[in-house]
Design goal:
Helix content is about 60%, strand content about 0%. With about 90 residues, the protein is mostly helical. The protein starts with 19 loop residues before the first helix and ends with a helix. Keywords: Acetylation, ATP synthesis, CF(0), Hydrogen ion transport, Ion transport, Membrane, Mitochondrion, Mitochondrion inner membrane, Phosphoprotein, Transmembrane, Transmembrane helix, Transport.
């Protein structure tokens, strides 16, 4: 049975595995499209974890963990080389 919602308008979690390549090709990869995707993801994250009445460090710590993981992946080649170097 075909879905009544067009593939382009579906969210990633609603896309079937067979529809995934077509869904990816239909996305907007221009700078404006990428900025819009970040903006659509930022506001729900901000309202759920940062802008709350009884806040805690969960929202900020997730951003910090993502930053640390990103920098570790970016510098992995240098860190691997440093680990294998012998100190005399």
């Amino acid at each position: 049975m075909a879905s009544p919602v067009p593939v382009k308008e579906k969210k990633l979690m609603d896309v079937k595995l067979g529809e995934l390549p077509g869904w990816i090709l239909m996305q907007d990869f221009t700078p404006r499209g990428i900025a819009g995707a970040f903006q659509r993801g930022y506001y729900p994250y901000y309202n759920k974890y940062v802008n709350v009445k009884k806040g805690n460090v969960a929202g900020i710590s997730m951003v910090l963990a993502a930053y640390v993981l990103f920098n570790y992946c970016r510098c992995y080649k240098e860190l691997k080389h440093e680990r294998l170097r012998k100190y005399h």
